């Protein structure tokens, strides 16, 4: 494995830009089965004196069942040269396609047997702390959400403590 373990609290400010400048893969599951998907929304910060990563998954996505049935998830940032992976993992469903094999990704495992990819430049292994469905009645800036929920397929928000981090 080319990735090196780092203390999550020692991540650089560049790592904190992971959702604004890069498009990571969200992966959940374990050694028996897993799925990955491209995500564009998320955040990093601190909650309850812990470093945290927040991600959002629609209940219609195949990855949702893995997020619900496992206590850990990972966020993997691939190099810019692997945009092909992000495209495939953002347009194909794991119900129909073995995205990991098709993309030639090498699976590694972190805490809780959470799968991530050796090809990544940065990996966050997260233990779920909190999950909540986003609901239209809680939107304060009415209209901001309109383009994203025309079909009513709202996201569930997951906040995970970053328990391991790997960086090249």
Ordered list of secondary-structure elements with their pairings:
Elements lengths: L3 E3 L6 H4 L1 H4 L3 E5 L4 E5 L3 E6 L2 E9 L3 H8 L2 E6 L5 H9 L7 H5 L3 E3 L5 E3 L4 E12 L21 E13 L1
Antiparallel strand pairs: 1-10, 2-3, 2-6, 4-5, 5-10, 6-9, 7-8, 9-10
H/E element order = EHHEEEEHEHHEEEE
Distance between the termini: 10 Å
Q: What general outline do the C-alpha atoms trace? A: globular
Major sheet attributes = 8 strands, antiparallel
Give the percentage of residues in beta strands. 35-45%
Category by helix and strand content: alpha+beta
Q: In total, how many beta strands?
A: 10
Poorly predicted runs? none
What gyration radius follows from the Cα positions, in whole Å? 15 Å
**Averaged pLDDT:** 89
Instruction: Enumerate how many helices there are, as a single number.
Output: 5
Range of helix content: 10-25%
Spell out the key features of this protein.
10 strands, 168 residues, single chain
Structural account:
The mean pLDDT is 89. The longest helix is centred in the middle third of the chain and has 9 residues, at 83-91. 18% of the residues lie in helices and 39% in strands. The chain is built from 5 helices and 10 strands. β2 (25-29) and β3 (34-38) form a beta hairpin. It is globular. Strands 1, 2, 3, 4, 5, 6, 9 and 10 form an 8-stranded antiparallel sheet that branches. The protein has a two-stranded antiparallel ribbon with strand order 7-8. The chain is an alpha+beta fold and 168 residues long.
């Amino acid at each position: 494995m080319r990735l090196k373990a780092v203390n999550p609290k020692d991540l650089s400010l560049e790592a904190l830009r992971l959702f604004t400048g890069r498009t990571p893969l969200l992966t959940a599951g374990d050694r028996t089965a897993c799925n990955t998907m491209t995500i564009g929304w998320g955040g990093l910060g601190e909650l309850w004196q812990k470093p945290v990563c927040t991600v959002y998954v629609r209940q219609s996505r195949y990855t949702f069942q893995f997020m619900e049935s496992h206590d850990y998830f990972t966020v993997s940032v691939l190099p810019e040269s692997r945009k092909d992976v992000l495209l495939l993992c953002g347009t194909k469903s794991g119900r129909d396609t073995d995205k990991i094999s098709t993309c030639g990704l090498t699976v590694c495992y972190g805490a809780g047997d959470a799968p991530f990819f050796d090809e990544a430049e940065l990996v966050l292994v997260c233990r779920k702390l909190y999950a909540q469905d986003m609901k239209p009645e809680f939107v304060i800036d009415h209209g901001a959400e309109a383009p994203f929920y025309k079909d009513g397929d709202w996201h569930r928000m997951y906040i995970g403590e970053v328990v391991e981090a790997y960086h090249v």
